[in-house]
């Protein structure tokens, strides 16, 4: 067995975004020695990029708001496919998590009378997003980091070392969650025993031993060509869970945010926050028409304005008017923009126009949307106080993820594995409402940390990492350095030497395939084609090769990430092919209607061959096995929060009569 450095911890948290940091704080406060590991610099995570705000029914801007209304909006946004218990816990606990941040030093924007200000967002009945301008995520991460520093200062006083009970490993990547081997083979599916990691700068391998691992690795956007996600988001946590033996659910639901930048090409996909519409921005096509009025679906008709005048009045008088359709949930707006562009009514660069310049004075725009003003000026030479922006859909968020227990965030199937934040599935159903991610991170990050700590403390004996697994993880990580020598098992079988594949070219092909074939509008024939291309890419990715050495070698890092993106992409494509209806972030051209019989069905993805990776080399075989599972019936008191007429749009007659 190779020599790999090992360190023992009680809880290892993979990811230092909002979910990871909140989990780490909780685990450390429960007395556990906690390690946090993150792929990029500490503080650089998607959470820090969050702009619009954090959803919590504090009732500051409208006293009628409460957790029940927030729960209702979340279920409507997710088209009732949400794990309802998660949606309930989230709505109940979000206000406490926001208050808690203020006790740790956060300072949200204020109303005139000194309360936390709350802004409108799509799908939220009342203004509900606590915010700090359009840089809310920055304040959230800054506060959580500050809390971590204060805990480390306590440890320095008590133990003489800042990282005695809470240590951050930055610019380090986890490639495998280790488990206790059941059979003595390299693929165990027993209890968690730690994580196999490499340091990006030096290429050094190390193992963090721990009985509990919390996955908080965020999203999968880098599998798509046009995305708001940054380089780290290669679906690592999703793949780590699968490889350790934990299933994923709802992977067909991928959110395409309606408003990403479309020009210039170098910035295509970068997010334009929903706050622009929340604060009064409107969408127009090339004829100057506010087209969203033509796209209000039946399920939302009663709640949205029918005329521009009514929509505009709503900003001043929300009690007597209905909201403008620019504030429909994201899936509806993204599809509408897609249709306008397809119908030839798009902007010169293939988007539509988003305008605040005619809606607010310049100084208000600069005060309320400083990042957007800066972003467009710097990146596109557009002054949003004087001219409209060009925007179009961009892959933004994955609703699917690790199948977790709602209360404890424990992953099914692998004792000691927990997941929180974007990597966990269920909470948002088929479509997430804006602002519901930041609150999700805090609510379930805390729960994951708490239960991981309880689990670790409850063990009489710590599971030992399996040496065979460590060896296998090391060999897997080193494979890109000897890719040329790898024997092809495909068409050129027979021991021929085949050239290595360029990881960047493979990545581009993958992104193009996912964008074109499993994107915002899906068709059966295209998804079959996607699965074929993914299978081919998977075989070629086993020969992804790099030159040079292990010291800071981004090509090597990408070669390793490809495994994860391919696994996750197959989950998305297989589940999207299976679900023959359109709902939230899954639109089928060939099955355009929402089907009530599909509502309670979760598609579960598992590794087809958990004992090895033999299938990965064979293009004829998929790596993912799909099964169906029903969501438990929604609790009666929660159902009673809705009118029966509304429920009839989502639930089958049989469910209703029950
Ligand atoms: P992240 O914050 O994404 O952090 C993931 C962490 O995991 C990172 O530290 C990363 O380095 C680490 N990691 C990943 N893989 C590995 C690995 N293999 N090994 C080690 N570490 C790893 N949501 C809202 O609610 N409101 C908003 O206003 C909002 N605005 C947004 C704006 C933008 C531009 C984007 C991209 C997203 C926005 N979202 C918003 C969504 C929200 O920010 C994310 O869903 C959320 O931050 C995810 O948080 P997380 O803690 O799950 O993961």
Automatic annotation (TrEMBL):
Domain of life: Bacteria
InterPro entries xrefs: FAD-dep_OxRdtase_2_FAD-bd, FAD/NAD-bd_sf, Fum_R/Succ_DH_flav-like_C_sf, Fum_Rdtase/Succ_DH_flav-like_C, SdhA/FrdA/AprA, Succ_DH/fumarate_Rdtase_cat_sf
Domain called FAD-dependent oxidoreductase 2 FAD-binding: residue spans: 10-438
Sequence segments annotated as region (Disordered): 307-327
Keyword Oxidoreductase attributed: yes
Occurrences of domain Fumarate reductase/succinate dehydrogenase flavoprotein-like C-terminal (ranges): 507-605
Keyword line: Flavoprotein, Oxidoreductase
PANTHER family reported in the protein's UniProt record: SUCCINATE DEHYDROGENASE 2 FLAVOPROTEIN SUBUNIT, SUCCINATE DEHYDROGENASE [UBIQUINONE] FLAVOPROTEIN SUBUNIT, MITOCHONDRIAL
Protein name: Fumarate reductase/succinate dehydrogenase flavoprotein subunit
Species the sequence originates in: Streptomyces nigrescens
